Structures are given as structure tokens and as C-alpha cells.
Automatic annotation (TrEMBL):
EC number(s) on file: 4.2.1.113
Full protein name: o-succinylbenzoate synthase
Gene3D superfamilies documented for this protein: Enolase-like C-terminal domain, Enolase-like, N-terminal domain
Natural source organism: Cryobacterium zhongshanensis
SMART domains: MR_MLE
A single BP term in Gene Ontology: menaquinone biosynthetic process
NCBIfam families membership: menC_lowGC_arch
Amino acid sequence: MKIENVELRRVRLPLVSPFRTSFGSVSEREALLVHVSTADAEGWAECAAEAEPLYSSEFLDGCELVIRDHLAPRLNAAGERLTAERVAPALAAVKGHRMSKAALETAILDAQLRTSGVSFGGYLGAVHDLVPAGVSVGIMDSIDRLLTAVEGYLAEGYLRIKLKIEPGWDLAPVRAVRERFGPDVLLQVDANTAYTLADARHLARLDPFDLLLIEQPLAEDDMLGHAALARLIQTPVCLDESIESARDAAAAISLGACSIINVKPSRVGGYLEARRIHDVAAAHGVPVWCGGMLETGIGRAANVALAGLPNFVLPGDTSASSRYYAQDLTKPFVLEDGHLRVPTGPGIGVEVLPDVLDDLTVSSSDIRF
Ligand code: OSB
Ligand code: MG
């Protein structure tokens, strides 16, 4: 497949409400779209990096630069023989930059699958038409506001609540949500690396609340710390930031650093590596779920397809478009009885709305092949 052009487009979408995590607060999503043109098809993908390098070391300006100056030229060199499966090997010499690599691979995979009329779900091996949706609820100014937000999400049908936590906002919000909504609500927390192993006794105080999991309590490079913590608390430890590859997943599982994995294709370099993590975890009896990065409909479509694989047994952070945006870049993803439907059309199975895209675009540039 010969690529003719790669367009990089920066878009800015206002969030319906600010989203605060232990590493910062955002009120709009600035995203980088990668749009690949071949003779036969167009492919779209969304780079999950944020404007600032706070979730991980990657950030939007850096992604644009590395795609333009280091990644795209390596794909160009592959010429006609390029396929989505050959993208990662062609880019392997470049260390890291997984979100940038994932965006390129995904856009190329979209074009390839549109050419052959195969859906992402079909290609990846999805076995479900509908996937259960959870929702990630940010840190709020007060417990009252949090309870109002959670009540709204439960009324909409979300099947699992994830509370963002940090020191000073952990036991009280979890206790309040449990007391108000009862023991049957599937509830989990995400610390985004905000604690250290010295907080183990404090985190053990979450044990009585019967959480599904605690996500990434410690620093991303603290595999041994997570293994030690997992022995000191009853809540299952789930890793997000620490897992950047299937090899990381195998190591974390072997060390006892996690018993559940949040799979974000963007964080691990793309959907092919994400599927390998799914497979490694399945072989160890470790359940996985699909994380999110406040994606627009473009990134969401592919995530929902991945979430249809058999070992994605926990509800994901794959929420409806309306949880994030009043106007999405695609036809909105909507909840159907707490589930999102896996797209079945070719490629990611959704179309970008051209007028909306133009309205929300802040800049664009072309890389000619
Ligand atoms: O840690 O899972 C995370 C959003 C941005 C960056 C990191 C994370 C998140 C979320 C929201 O938790 C997931 C979503 O709804 O897309
Ligand atoms: Mg997380």
C-alpha cells in the first residue's frame, strides 16, 4: 500500500465539564488527528497525547515533530510494501514515542481495512456486538458535587464507576459513593501514580469498600513497589501507565505487580501490541479492560472494537460521546442499556463529519510521500 499523503490536524473540542485527575485539570481536549491518503482509501486515527506531558512523557507538539521528522520518513522508505503490520518493525529503531507510532499505525490500518472491506472488530477478533461502558469521574470540589455527578451517570445507565483519587481525595469520596449508591455498584479508583509504597497502610483502608481494583497507585516505573503493595492491600492492583508493551505486561504479571490490566492502544504503540497484551493476559488468567484518553469518536470507534475481544471482561472507560463532548467529530456513540455498539463498517467504521472537523480545526499540515 503506497501512502500518498499524511495530514496532521490539530483540533480543539470543549469538554462538557472540566476533568480533573491527580496530575491536572483540563476543560478542553486538544487532539492530533492523523489522516492518511492512499490511492484506494483514506485512514483516520487520533493521537492520544495531551497538550502537556503530564500523563506520560508524550505531548502534542512533540508528537507532531516526531511523526513529521522521524516516523513518516521511515514509512516513506518502505514504499509500496508498507502494510499496517509492517509499521511497527519499520519504526522500531525510534525509541519510545508509542502514542505517535500508534496514531500512524492505526491510520494506516484504517486505510488498509477500508480497502479490503474489513472492520476493526473483525480484524482484531472481537466476539461481542456490544461492550459494557464504564465512566471515569474526575476529582471534584466537593463530595456533594461528586454524588450528583455519579447519580447522573448511573441514571444514564453506566455499568461501572471509576473515581479519580489523590491524597486528600480518596477514602471520603469512596465511602460517600458506597454509602449513597450501595454495594452493588461496580466501583473502582484510579490514582494516576499519586502515591508511594509508604502509603500502603492508608490505601489498605480502601479494603472494606469492595472495590473492583485500584489503578496505577504508584509511579509508572515502580513495578516492585506495585508488587509489594499488592501483598499489603486486598483491593486488586491494576496497571495503566506502567504497561507500555506485551513484554511489560508479562513482567508485571510474573512479578505480581498487577492482577488486572488497563489496555490503552495509544499507550502501548497501537492495536497490534494491544492485542498481544490481551493475549498474554488471557494466557495468565488476568482480565483486561479498555482504557480511554478522552477520545473523540475517531479514537473511540477503534477502542470499542478492541473492547469486543474475549478477555476484555471488565467494563471499560469507553463512555458515550456525550460524557465528553456536546459535538463529537463523528456521529455520537450512544449508550444502549449501558453498552456501546461495536462498529461493523470497514475500518474504524465511522465517518468524520467534515463541517464539524473544519470548525474545530486549529491547524493542519501535510507530509507528502
Ligand atoms: O488514567 O485512565 C487514565 C484520561 C486522560 C488521561 C488518563 C486517564 C484518563 C481517564 C479517562 O481516566 C478515560 C476516558 O474516559 O477516556
Ligand atoms: Mg488510568
